[in-house]
Amino acid sequence: MAKIKRIGVLTSGGDAPGMNAAIRAVTRTAIYNGLEVIGIRHGYLGMINANFKPLKAHNVSDTIQRGGTILKTARCEEFKTVEGRRMAYENLRAAEIDGVIVIGGDGSFTGARIFDEEYNIPFVGVPGTIDNDIYGTDYTIGYDTALNTVVQCVDKIRDTASAHNRMFFVEVMGAEAGHIALFSGIATGAEAIIMPEIKGEGRDLKKMIENGNKRKKSSNIIIVAEGDEEGGAMAIAERLKPEFTDYDIRVSILGHLQRGGSPSALDRVNASRLGNAAVEALLDDQKSVMVGLQNDVVVLVPFRKAVKLHKGLNQHLIDLIDVLNV
Ligand code: F6P
Questions:
Q1: Is 267 labeled as catalytic in the residue annotation?
Q2: In this structure, what DSSP letter does residue 35 have?
Q3: pLDDT for 202 beyond 50
């Protein structure tokens, strides 16, 4: 492979707190190794429109603590087309970009994998999504911050729920995965957790609520992952209302506030490690791989696996729900 002199970096898909820390680490690691860095704005759309901006060490100063992404992001339909990818390739060539680092989720890595098969420009991925649903890494950038945001919100909901003896259905993000729901449910002592990975409406909801009553709980919180097959919190609450006529039910959808805010220390440190590892992977002639963390060690995972395989929930934590709700 030709020696890499200039790399591009972009953020793609849903933003996640810590993406800026990753951009910063990519930029500074590249400069440290004598490379030039080009920021590609608005994700893959910026590759298609040649929306490029050189990044120097000072351009990423004062960003490690900021949420969102200084490069902007997008979900780009055009990059899914042959013509879109051809335009992207021509723009990368014209800008003499020899390798690209993509910070995003599995949709972003799918695009990168296809591009890598078609053209001879290596792509390396950094997992960035609050959902923590990428196979091959224990951790994705933004998950820890989002989780802590959810926990703070649910603690507040608990206060008002207890004051009124109410039952709350709280919807959290996770389009196809229950990681945020499971962890936040355990962390907040939720009476029940509804996740796409565990089938069957209501599951043992009634039993769990009754157990809570026996412990003289004055409120009930049911965490619902937005991607649950039976619908979101609103739909589930409506359907279950007739079974819980003694309860005053409310619904709270946390929504996009889960994606914002200053990244946690863990997200900043891990994003710094992964951004650094991604540049080193390009320098080591790697392509079509994601850098990930397994047992706190940096690993390389082929895009092929990261996008195809499903990262399951931790069974020990699922079992713990029943034990803690005894
Ligand atoms: O993939 C991250 C995520 O936050 C999901 O949890 C959520 O379903 C989705 O993005 C929302 O996307 P958008 O901001 O495009 O509506």
A1: no
A2: -
A3: no
